[in-house]
Amino acid sequence: MSVKDKPVHALDLPQVDPLPEETQRYFDICVEKLGFVPNVLSAYAFNIDKLNGFTTLYNDLMLGPSGLNKLEREMIAVVVSSINHCFYCLTAHGAAVRQLSGDPTLGEVLVMNYRAADLSVRHKAMLDFAAKMTEVGHKIEESDRQVLRDAGFSDPDIWDIASVAGFFNMSNRVSNAVDKQPNIEYHSQNR
Fold it and tell me: Within the chain, which residue ranges are assigned CATH 1.20.1290.10?
């Protein structure tokens, strides 16, 4: 079975049909902006409360007010997803990095090995912290947070870096566990 033929998720979950009006509006906005409904949303649509919980947290972390810009948050998503080998998130958020940066190479190098990327001191510190949190979070110390401060991040920014990294660690594990597949459209975007 090719990736294109694979299901949104491997679990046979019942879908809510019809979707509540508010959820349908949200999906319609996705189609308007992206041209499709991301499979992660379709996968959660078996339980509207779970879908709403997921989208509320995602929208707050990735789109809400923050000292981190959208590209920086997407960079964290890709680095965490690379460490966790999450095909869904690497594909979807790699496309977002390519779009937001205008640099197709950046999205690819972050997927493979962010340490090989030509990064600013700020971005290297941010991604080192997200990687350490993903690999050995229990070993983070004040000196790790100080490196971020020295690179220009405030304490609220550090909270946001940790929150985005934590969210993607959770999301990656769920995606991997249920074999969630990325929308085929992501593969060709912004190349």
Answer: 70-188
How many CB atoms neighbour CB 78 within 10 A?
30
**13 has pLDDT over 80:** no
CATH classification code of 15-63: 1.20.5.810
Looking at the structure, give the CATH architecture of the domain made up of residues 70-188.
Answer: Up-down Bundle (1.20)
Q: What is the pLDDT of residues 124-142, one digit of tens each?
A: 999 999 999 999 999 999 9
CA 157, CA 46: separation in Å to the nearest integer? 34
Three-state DSSP string of 97-155: HHHHHCCHHHHHHHHHHHHHCCCCHHHHHHHHHHHHHHHHHHHCCHHHHHHHHHCCCCH
**Torsions phi, psi for 170 (to 5 deg):** -65, -50
The Cα 100–Cα 166 span in angstroms is: 22
CA–CA distance, 97 with 73 (Å, rounded to integer) = 9
CA dist., res. 134 & res. 77, Å (int): 11
Q: What is the pLDDT of residues 85-100, one digit of tens each?
A: 999 999 999 999 999 9
Identity of residue 118: D
Of 45 and 13, the one with more pLDDT: 45
* Start and end residues for every CATH 1.20.5.810 domain found in the chain: 15-63
